[in-house]
């Protein structure tokens, strides 16, 4: 049985060069940052020198390569992965999941969700029903995607008062994420979402409006227009691939009327 050359994994040196170019670093800049000689780095990238596992990890750290891709680099170099990847229901991640649930509960009465690297919805607090109440059922079927849920015509999109602005913000964020991680799934998601119809004008860059300090999400709910801003939280020092790819998206009221409304409403049970 013959193996197609296209099926063979790329050499680790070529992969490292791609990551360096993606980060827009010269060989000199990377060699200084990683404390290796430019000549040795050149030999590694061209395949003239086989890097040790420690060298691969040192370069990957300097290049801010995601843990999942660091494992891929190690495999390409002929080494075992360095970072474990546990399922969320694994006992090893019990304390992590407990912490996530505590954060979600503590964020009530404001909406918050936990997503993974491709924006798959992992968990949410009850206040998220404010966003999901009138969306199509098929968008909530597992594995539900938070960005698809937001921008799909059958999702939140018809109720977003500033859809063009919020859509441009989310697509820009997703594009940067796809470029930074070289994640094919994110690139495919971007192409899908960018193809959704939008009648509102979309700004090319985020510009502050009168009194604005962040891009707001203005959402119509039961005859009321609510205004939110969002924050993203990640684990600070993850050593597990799954944990490194989790993020908590929290929504806060951007004005006093929204805060008052959220404090007095009761999420659907």
TrEMBL record:
- In this record, what's one Pfam family? HTH_3
MF term (GO), any: DNA binding
Cite the InterPro entries for this sequence. Cro/C1-type_HTH, Lambda_DNA-bd_dom_sf, MLTR_LBD
SUPFAM superfamilies in alphabetical order: lambda repressor-like DNA-binding domains
**Gene3D superfamilies, per this entry?**
3.30.450.180, lambda repressor-like DNA-binding domains (1.10.260.40)
Cited PROSITE patterns:
HTH_CROC1 (PS50943)
Segments forming domain HTH cro/C1-type = 16-70
Q: What is this protein called?
A: Transcriptional regulator
Q: Which organism is it from?
A: Actinocatenispora sera
